[in-house]
């Protein structure tokens, strides 16, 4: 499964409506809510998001499994209840309901958290792209055949899959989500315009290969999967999503998805698969597979981003310019270049951590109030410093970009690229390094909606074709379960199969998952690095992470 960002879902509840915000003042403007009112709003949100019903005002966010992704969800839901904008960094820095309430009370009274503006009317008819979609469209114009913009999923299926229900279900999913019915065309001013087709017309193929001898079957299946994953998708004509069902034997199938990144990010995959299972169950039972439309559409998100959230970007720009004003030069990674076709310049190495390391990271981060991202950013900094001899590093970090509760269950491209600056100079004390990186993660999360293209322009970075500027290395921490578990009555189970990367966005991309133990996947460019070298670095990353975990518990501990 190719993802770029954590894919945890969350369903907005009726409790996310704005609460009263205090007694009206003499001017007629509602007064800010008081401490007790804020605690009453914060506590149930903590309980809901952390799935911990018996929390108290002193319960710690990190002790109950909180992370940077859940902080975003808490901030959005608390903000919706109070009718005020709540930065996610506030949750990370004030990790109990009582501490967060005290912080928010001070912010509200000081004017630091403005009210949430009303949704813009007529957003459904507004067909502007999001800033992320604009970026992907421009890159597509430079290289329409690039493969790293295909979000792919492969599922090995045991049981029986009904082809008619399969087709009807995916058609219903595409009909539900306007992003999957979108096309992107060049307007008269040479900018991109979004066209949303009224009818769902996805590319769905069903192929029965069970009758062939095994060698022929495997060859045909491989050819079909390769064709699905390597055939470029045209943005102007669509469709932008492909779904395939391959019957390989009695009670053995393969499901393949390929969706263009301009309408789908990693988070969206959870929603896609959950909606498919819902629609499939309806169709299998002889009912209509039609799914109710989401409360808001992707166009509403674009309107929010362009007309509401953009008002925060000038302040973010000042903070970002300050953080990266004297940023270091490109990271001098040691390379061993060879010629590789551009559209095959991607591969990955996966290693599993020793038993117990995931639990040790969890214990350390909850004990000392850090996110998993903070630990892994520190470990990556230590590794890169060893490799390059540089102690001031810039690392790209994909961020969810779904700052509002209403956006959690939408399919679309919300993900953004943020930058983290990792400074290791002047100390080898793990606690000091973690504190530095915690501050960096707080800033990263708080500025997560600032468009990456604007950041490139702000910092005056040089663009070079389709390569990502400003950072050669990325880090993604995925703390979620594999999405979508078929119900027993559907008649099948599935298991995710990770297809190898065919093209890499970064020179090195580190992806950490704790779905089943701690797993590290390093995606790399074979044109620059040998597989054995990357495998060695992956192992050294786990060693660095162990040192960080040990060092945080030992005041004399060193990360290097």
Automatic annotation (TrEMBL):
Gene3D superfamilies: ACP-like, Chloramphenicol acetyltransferase-like domain, Nonribosomal peptide synthetase, condensation domain
Location of region: Disordered: 1-33
UniProt feature, compositional bias: Low complexity: 1-29
SMART domains recorded: PKS_PP
A Pfam family per the record: PP-binding
Organism: Saccharothrix mutabilis subsp. mutabilis
Name of protein: Carrier domain-containing protein
Keyword Secreted: no
Lineage of the organism: Bacteria, Bacillati, Actinomycetota, Actinomycetes, Pseudonocardiales
Record-linked InterPro entries: ACP-like_sf, CAT-like_dom_sf, Condensation_dom, PKS_PP-bd, PP-bd_ACP
Cofactor dependence: pantetheine 4'-phosphate
Stretches assigned to the Carrier domain: 33-108
Keywords: Phosphopantetheine, Phosphoprotein
